[in-house]
Amino acid sequence: MVLKAVLFDFNGVIINDEPLHQRLLEQILIEENLRPKSEEFREVCLGRSDRVCLTELLARRGRVVTDEYLNNLIARKSRAYAEQLANLETLPSYAGLTDLIFQIRAAQLPMAVVSGAVRSEIELVLTRLELAPYFSIIVAGDDIRVSKPDPTGYLLAVERLNQRDPGLNLKPSECLAIEDTPAGIQAAKAAGMQVVGVANSYPFHMMQRQANWAVDYLSDLEFERVRQVFAGEKPLVKSVEG
Q: Best label site of 106, 113, 135, 210, fewest CB within 10 Å?
């Protein structure tokens, strides 16, 4: 077996924007005359789509809304997100991201984003970071109604990569996923993929227990060693801790 594709989560892996999402979600609740609870973001929203997150936050407060109403809330939040990023001269991406993408490109492996984020947000950030040309496929929260830890997003990414390049004949077991949350790791593993857990949002020890590889930072990931493990040339090294 060889490594044929690398699939990235977005929030917490490509861009360090989780605090911004928390503020915007709390603002949505306030505008809906509901009281936010800071601890709920990590419990309900990290690693999950805005649709699933807002549905749960509203349900906890006795609110059940129509799909149209929920779509409007998501659109409001997405507009606010774009406005906030427009005020930033430099977007907060993660150290080691550019170098890792360079290594993947040098290996001539396709890349995709699999995220519960809204597509417009993903495209905005990738364009600002000058990474958009390198991601041939984006599976966003707009594309599916379920959220991680459901594996549907990852399986859809494999399907779309094969549609784009039928000769690739890609299988989930030939993909590496890069995630920062338990929900994301569970989704990728349920799809049949090996996973790097990067400790951007949760402690290293939590990533180490759940992922095939765990790293403190993307810059710690020895990509060539990962490729060798896929090829059966080296035993699996569970973690790299800085």
A: 106
DSSP collapsed to 3 states, 155-205: HHHHHHHHHHCHHHCCCHHHEEEEECCHHHHHHHHHCCCEEEEECCCCCHH
5-16+91-240 folds as Rossmann fold (3.40.50)
Domain over 18-86 is classified CATH 1.10.1410: no
Q: What is the pLDDT of residue 242?
A: 45
Residue with tokens 């000769």: 167
Q: Is the pTM of this model over 0.85?
A: yes
The C-alpha torsion from 157 through 117 and 92 to 98, rounded to 10°, is: 10
pLDDT digits (tens, 9 = 90+) for 104-151: 999 999 999 999 999 999 999 999 999 999 999 999 999 988 899 999
Q: Domain boundaries in the chain?
A: 5-16+91-240, 18-86
Distance from C-alpha of 11 to C-alpha of 93, rounded to nearest angstrom:
10
Give the residue from 113, 32, 14 showing the smallest Cα distance to 69: 32
- Copy the structure tokens of residue 125: 């950030």
